[in-house]
């Protein structure tokens, strides 16, 4: 705690938000005065937080009491000294400290998403490898709307007008939201988040921020904090921001593309390239692993019922419908950008921006690791345009995706039965809640006709 204590005192922090990510990616925890935080060096939260859904509900009792102590005991949360950030939007000098979840025996709890990513990174470390990732996060800015039955609309920009039509890569369109973008950049700089470029994406008032490449755990922490930052910046300007995968009918979905490469930990060289600069066997096996195991991890890359609308909307955006691969090809799910040998990488374009960043990083790296271990050969690369139909290997809905994850022995062997069972249970609980809601489509077309 010495490093954290010094940091807090140097910045004259008076209040600390003690947070962790649940399975959905929601920040949960406690807020306390700095002195109390330093004295206690951690907090306690009920274990049940790790099985809480986006709606605040829990899975059925059978799985709940199978995975958790029936006495609803506490877990112990300890802060990571390398994952503490300011809270630039707070009124008083405040900090947000990301915590890891431990049991009473000081073991990391395997239901926690950050634990899963740490477990995967340890597997790489044992092989003398260092993964490098670079996420790209998309989101929509929208008018404030408190009625969930009403469709979302673009906010009013600096010109006093709403956007209309597609404005991909338009500088002027991005500048419509310059006050918000400036706040995001200023706050991210204050927190030390490694954001790089911002672009206007295809959708109306849809933006994308790119992160600089680096360590997966650090970047997962940063994406976790970045989402909070964007929402707060939007609220400051009386609008909303959403990371839903498909928030607006007829508009493109929002993704979280993840670039990834693997370094030899001793030499620092990219193992995806041979000495002569050509692609290595490890590179091809990594892609082969992604093609093989992504279908078994779709509930991580597409975690809720809305996620699958992004894949089923042909012609509404660049969401990939496949797990093909190709060089400089944005119609495939696994794109290989043109780059020098030292920067050879693969970009997974399948995850939505609604995914939990810790699990998205872990999922990608597991697929690639299994591919290298099993020496899986990829399909032939796509040189032209990929088919605009959903790949048969992928899943069209959350139900079939959860079934595939449930049956994957390879994923269970790495993530652990407790996590897989618990994660599936929270997704199923959310889906059951969704099915109980009568939609506006049903009221519009069936109310007076059937």
Q: How would you briefly describe this protein structure?
A:
One of its GO terms (molecular function) is ATP binding. Helix content is 34%, strand content 20%.
Could you describe the 3D structure shown?
The protein is α+β, with helices and mostly antiparallel strands and 450 residues long. It has two domains: 144 residues, Glutamine synthetase, N-terminal domain (Ubiquitin-like (UB roll), Roll), CATH 3.10.20.70; 285 residues, 2-Layer Sandwich (Creatine Kinase, Chain A, domain 2). 34% of the residues lie in helices and 20% in strands. Strands 6, 7, 8, 9, 10, 11, 12 and 13 form an eight-stranded mixed beta sheet that branches. Strands 2-1-5-4-3 form a five-stranded mixed beta sheet, sandwiched between helices.
Structural class per helix/strand content?
Answer: alpha+beta
Roughly what fraction of the amino acids lie in strands? Answer: 15-25%
Domain count: 2
CATH first level of the largest domain: which class?
Answer: Alpha Beta
Query: Which quaternary structure do these chains form?
Result: single chain
Task: Indicate the mean pLDDT.
Answer: 94
Radius of gyration: 22 Å
Spans of at least 5 consecutive residues whose pLDDT stays below 50 are none
Helix content: 25-40%
- The count of β-strands is 13
Discrete helix count:
14
The N- and C-terminal alpha carbons lie at a distance of: 65 Å
Protein name: Probable glutamine synthetase
InterPro entries: Gln_synt_N_sf, Gln_synth/guanido_kin_cat_dom, Gln_synth_cat_dom
GO molecular function: ATP binding; glutamine synthetase activity
Family: Belongs to the glutamine synthetase family.
